[in-house]
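>> Question from a student workshop board

For tomorrow's exercise we were told to take the sequence and the ligand below, predict the bound structure, and bring the output to class. My setup keeps failing. Could a helper post the expected result so I can at least see what it should look like? The ligand is iron/sulfur cluster.
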Amino acid sequence: MTIDEKTLKELLKDAPDHYRYISLKIDHAICRLSDGCRLCIDKCPTNAFYQKERVELIPELCIGCGACVLVCMVPGCIKLIRERKDTGRKEAVTTPKDVEKLLAALNIKKKRDVGRKVFEHIL
Ligand code: SF4
Ligand code: SF4
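>> Workshop helper replied:
Here is what the output should look like for this input. Compare the format with yours to find the bug.
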């Protein structure tokens, strides 16, 4: 899947406020690096990946945004575990659908918060 700059910015902007990185694993048995895929390396906003014989991660740089999962051409190849800062709930993000669902949930929450603020102001 191609990721547009707006979505990438949204993921990047929200991630440090909302998530704590727990772990990220790549299933090298199904990774397509040997076929020339570098999507995760190219799209990671913090340059947390680098390439050796396999795709490797610098965990200290990962902010848990999920952009790599969103662009990876093999669903389930990247498994990101992150923790929600507000609830402490751990989320497994392994397919683009997971990222899209969580992004949509976050946007609904943001709209609700804005709505509450507006009504508080009016009342
Ligand atoms: S979740 Fe993926 S894209 Fe986002 S910072 Fe971590 S390694 Fe990079
Ligand atoms: S995007 Fe997925 S398939 Fe491509 S190199 Fe990264 S982990 Fe491997």
